[in-house]
């Protein structure tokens, strides 16, 4: 097959967290719980938004996209991790590794772009409220959401295609519990100059540019909030974007640490913990953050579950 012409490695060995059976059992319980909570929490948020017409607004349209990204992102990584912890093998086929790399990179990139789109939505809502209906029309929201998914898909196609061109003829032990670009490049027998150049370009665009755009939006938002005279007005304006700001802070801190800092031996070990934050912990916490810090979501949840009231 064409893929096998580029590699002598048929499968990779994923490195777990510990060889101790008791610790493996503990990790299995923790990660399974995180996965189930992520699926449950994000599914409830989707249902709450879908069933409540009051939440059919641009803000919650983007939130639905974020929730879906969290579901597919955690489902790309945790099932394989749980399989390894169950003792059913910590190996992954070459094709399986490339598939995981493709989807993980796609969803992570899309989430960064989506956070920028959500920041722009909050900027328009707070800084240009009179133009909100026209600037954030249904067509504009669909265009933004489509761009998020398509641009990230194009980027991950480039990275995965470049990775598939490399030769893997030596060690096949990935010092991580998942397949990602930095870890795989360390195992390549081929020159990785072009791959590294594309990583820098992707980091600059998805990480730096989108981070600056998000911060610029929030700079304008904070300036507008400070100009509001009433304390109640300030509180209401800030409450509409506080949850998103918390998610942005959590997400960017983990992704920047993983993909921007040098891949030294110690950072690779720490990278496992950090990767868990954006593939397991963040998808679990995001529904809680948005439900606890958003009045409209709380009301929608009470309607779905009257016992919560």
From TrEMBL:
Recorded topology in the membrane: Multi-pass membrane protein
G-protein coupled receptors family 1 profile domain: residues covered: 41-290
Keyword Hydrolase: no
Spans through the membrane: 22-48, 60-78, 98-120, 140-158, 204-228, 240-261, 273-292
Keyword field: Cell membrane, G-protein coupled receptor, Membrane, Olfaction, Receptor, Sensory transduction, Transducer, Transmembrane, Transmembrane helix
Keyword Membrane recorded: yes
Location of the protein in the cell: Cell membrane
Signal peptide as annotated in the record: none
Any GO MF annotation of the entry: G protein-coupled receptor activity
CDD domains, per the entry: 7tmA_OR13-like
InterPro entries: GPCR_Rhodpsn, GPCR_Rhodpsn_7TM, Olfact_rcpt, Olfactory_GPCR
PANTHER family associated with the record: OLFACTORY RECEPTOR
Family (UniProt): Belongs to the G-protein coupled receptor 1 family.
Function: Possible taste receptor.
The protein, known as: Olfactory receptor
Originating organism: Dipodomys ordii
């Amino acid at each position: 097959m064409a893929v096998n012409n580029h590699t002598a490695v048929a499968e990779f060995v994923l490195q777990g967290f510990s060889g101790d059976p008791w610790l493996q059992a503990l990790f299995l319980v923790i990660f399974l719980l995180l996965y189930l909570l992520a699926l449950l929490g994000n599914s409830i948020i989707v249902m709450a938004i879908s069933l409540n017409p009051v939440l059919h607004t641009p803000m919650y349209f983007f939130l639905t996209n974020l929730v879906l990204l969290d579901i597919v992102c955690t489902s790309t990584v945790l099932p394989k991790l749980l399989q390894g912890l169950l003792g059913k093998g910590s190996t992954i086929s070459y094709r399986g590794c490339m598939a995981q790399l493709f989807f993980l990179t796609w969803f992570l990139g899309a989430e960064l772009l989506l956070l920028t789109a959500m920041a722009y939505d909050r900027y328009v809502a707070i800084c240009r409220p009179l133009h909100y209906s026209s600037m954030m029309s249904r067509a504009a929201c669909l265009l933004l959401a489509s761009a998020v998914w398509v641009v990230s898909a194009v980027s991950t196609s480039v990275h995965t295609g470049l990775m598939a061109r490399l030769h893997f003829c030596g060690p096949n032990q990935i010092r991580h519990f998942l397949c990602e670009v930095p870890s795989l490049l360390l195992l390549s027998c081929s020159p990785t100059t072009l791959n590294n150049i594309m990583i820098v370009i992707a980091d600059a665009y998805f990480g730096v540019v989108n981070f600056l755009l998000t911060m610029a939006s929030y700079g304008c938002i904070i300036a507008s909030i400070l100009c509001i005279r009433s304390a109640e007005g300030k509180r209401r304006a800030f409450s509409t974007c506080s949850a998103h700001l918390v998610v942005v802070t959590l997400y960017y801190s983990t992704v920047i640490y993983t993909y921007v800092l040098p891949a030294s031996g110690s950072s690779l070990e720490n990278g496992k913990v950090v990767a868990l934050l954006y593939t397991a912990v963040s998808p679990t916490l995001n529904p809680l953050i948005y439900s606890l810090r958003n009045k409209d979501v709380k009301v929608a949840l009470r309607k779905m579950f009257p016992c919560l009231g």
